[in-house]
Structures are given as structure tokens and as C-alpha cells.
Amino acid sequence: MKVTVVGAGNVGASVAEYCAMKELADEVVLLDIKEGFAEGKAMDLNQCATLNGFNTKVTGTTGDYSKTAGSKVVVITSGIPRKPGMTREELIGTNAGIVKTVTENLIKHSPDAILIVISNPMDTMTYLSAKSSGLPKNRVIGMGGMLDSARFRYRLSEALECNPNDIQGVVIGGHGDTTMIPLTRLATYNSTPVSNYLSEEKLEEVAKATMVGGATLTGLLGTSAWYAPGAAGAAMVEAIVRDQKKLMTASVYLEGEYGQNDICVGVPVIVGKDGWEEVIDFKLNDDEKAKFEASAAAVRKMNDALEL
Ligand SMILES: NC(=O)c1ccc[n+]([C@@H]2O[C@H](COP(=O)([O-])OP(=O)(O)OC[C@H]3O[C@@H](n4cnc5c(N)ncnc54)[C@H](O)[C@@H]3O)[C@@H](O)[C@H]2O)c1
Ligand SMILES: O=C(O)C[C@H](O)C(=O)O
């Protein structure tokens, strides 16, 4: 079984590394347009096989899509990342053309694949991929909410001074500095509401830090993050190839769910071998519903800039 990752940069190489380490496929194909870059990353990763004890083979290619043929899952990370001070939305001018071309090339060689879109602005790039691939809606999934939820859980664990794995918490809405919605009301510490332990002010602070999590890292790194994005991408690959039926937040094409139509935006979904299989209704309260509507409106405005 084959998994392809397009874009062998920071995020793509990280997805490939986690996929190999977890042996999620027999072969992981890395494709990039920069001459020799994917081949070099593949060689470096293959030389980890004996050190980390995995049997997945990594193949690198400069733009040869025939090597990606028959992939079960493809992960799209190609495109530019933001620099400090930029928003993700500012990347649309460059990344829309890249994501559209890449999607079309991938589908020619892997018509049965499930697409995971990571390139930013992710919700709009997922919508573009869904439209330009013509694939059934369940086979196009945007990765953002899993990363944002992981950051939310980590920030909560810092505030509670506890193990992050004891925290459950979900972020829905758009994957943008102002559009994501950390669902503080529903977050728990081993099944007990986090509001039992943290003040309103502290919870507000955690939510705000979560929302600008990507911008904070970009400020520190000079480019955007890759370890947690790579791990989140690989977790979605794993849910598909191992048919885990996991509840994950992902940007998917909505037809009435959460009151939205003709848009890809982050909602809780079950992910398994067929892609995203079902949207789960979290029964938002009025305040959360209003935030979700505002978030979807902002994503929709960005989608309007696309030439479909
Ligand atoms: N959705 C998320 O949660 C999330 C998280 C992190 C990064 N991102 C986004 O992922 C994208 C990649 O980030 P990065 O840090 O890996 O950037 P990067 O610059 O390290 O890597 C991007 C790679 O894409 C390649 N590329 C460009 N055009 C291509 C094409 N047409 N075909 C194949 N490859 C092509 C580049 O050569 C480069 O190697 C950015 O848009 C970034 O904003 C999203
Ligand atoms: O912040 C970014 O631009 C990259 C990514 O979307 C992230 O959240 O890390």
C-alpha cells in the first residue's frame, strides 16, 4: 500500500517521517518540484530504517507523478509557508495555483485516493481541492483542527500543570488566527470539566494562545511549524489506512451540517478507510453557534477569491 506526500519541505518531510516510523504504508512517495530535493529527503529517511527499525520504503521524485500511481492516501503540503507578521490568508495568491495543479496531477494517477490537504489557507485549499478533483466529498479532508486541538490540549495541560494526555479538547471552525473556535465549555481533565479547575480569565487566555498558536511559532522559527503539523497529518493517514473510525476535527465539505452549505470548514468527523465518514453534532450552544457562523463567513469570503 502506497501513501504519497506532495511537498518535501518541512511539513511534508515530517509527515513522511512519521508515516515511515509508524509503518503506515509499504511505500511513502515524496514528490517536490525542487530538483533532487525529494530524492535527498527520501535517501536521508531511508537511512533511518535500521536505526528506527522500520520497513517502509521512501521514494523521492522531482515531479514524476507516475511514481505516485495507485496511492491509497495523498497528503498535499506543497506551497509557501507564512513568514512572521503574515496571515495564512495572504498565501492564497501563490498556493491556490499550486494546490489546483497538484490535485489534478495526483488524481490522474490515483483516482481512488483520499486527499488530505495541509497547504494554507487550508480550509480554502481544501475547498479548491474538493472542487478541482471532482472526488466524492468524503475523500477530501483538510488538516487543521487536529493540530489546533493538540495545541489547545497542550495549553490546557500547562495551565492545569497536568499530563497533556489527560486533557480532552477540541477546536472547530476555520484554521485561521481569528476563525478557530476552541470549545472550552466541552474540554475536560479526565472527564471532569476544565472549568472546575481554571478561572474564566485563565480559560480565555488559553483559548487566545491556542488561536495564535501558529503565529507564535512562526515568530519564533522565522517560518511556520512542522513537527506537530506533521504528526497531525500522519495521525489522519493512520486513521484512514488502519480504518480507526477516530473522531477528529477536520475541514470537510458541508451540505447542511452545522447550518452550512458549499464550504469546507472544521467540524468533528469520524475518519476511517473511506475518508471522513460522518459529521458528529456537538450540540453547540448559542454563543458557539454564533462563533461558528462568523468563522464560516470568513472562510466563505476567502473562497470567493478562488477562480474555480
Ligand atoms: N494546515 C496546517 O495545519 C498547516 C500546518 C503547517 C503548515 N501548513 C502549510 O503547509 C505548507 C507547507 O509548509 P512547509 O513549512 O512544509 O513549507 P516548505 O517551504 O518547507 O515546503 C513546501 C514545499 O513545497 C514544494 N512545492 C512548491 N510548489 C510545488 C509544486 N507545484 N509541486 C510540488 N512541490 C511543490 C516546495 O519546493 C517546498 O519544498 C504551507 O502552505 C504552510 O502554510 C499548514
Ligand atoms: O501557522 C501557520 O501558518 C502554519 C500552520 O497553519 C500552523 O498552524 O502551524
From TrEMBL:
One Pfam family recorded for the sequence: Ldh_1_C
Enzyme class per UniProt: oxidoreductase
CDD domains, sorted: LDH-like_MDH
SUPFAM superfamilies from the UniProt entry: LDH C-terminal domain-like, NAD(P)-binding Rossmann-fold domains
Binding site for substrate: R82, R88, N120, R151
Keyword Oxidoreductase attributed: yes
InterPro entries reported in the protein's UniProt record: L-lactate/malate_DH (IPR001557), Lactate/malate_DH_C (IPR022383), Lactate/malate_DH_N (IPR001236), Lactate_DH/Glyco_Ohase_4_C (IPR015955), Malate_DH_type3 (IPR011275), NAD(P)-bd_dom_sf (IPR036291)
Binding positions for NAD(+) per the UniProt entry: G7, A8, G9, N10, V11, G12, D32, N95, I118, S119, N120
Reaction catalyzed: (S)-malate + NAD(+) = oxaloacetate + NADH + H(+)
EC number: 1.1.1.37
Residues covered by the Lactate/malate dehydrogenase N-terminal domain: 1-142
A single GO molecular function term of this UniProt record: L-lactate dehydrogenase (NAD+) activity
Active-site residue numbers: H175
Family: Belongs to the LDH/MDH superfamily. MDH type 3 family.
Function: Catalyzes the reversible oxidation of malate to oxaloacetate.
Record protein name field: Malate dehydrogenase
Organism field: Reichenbachiella agariperforans
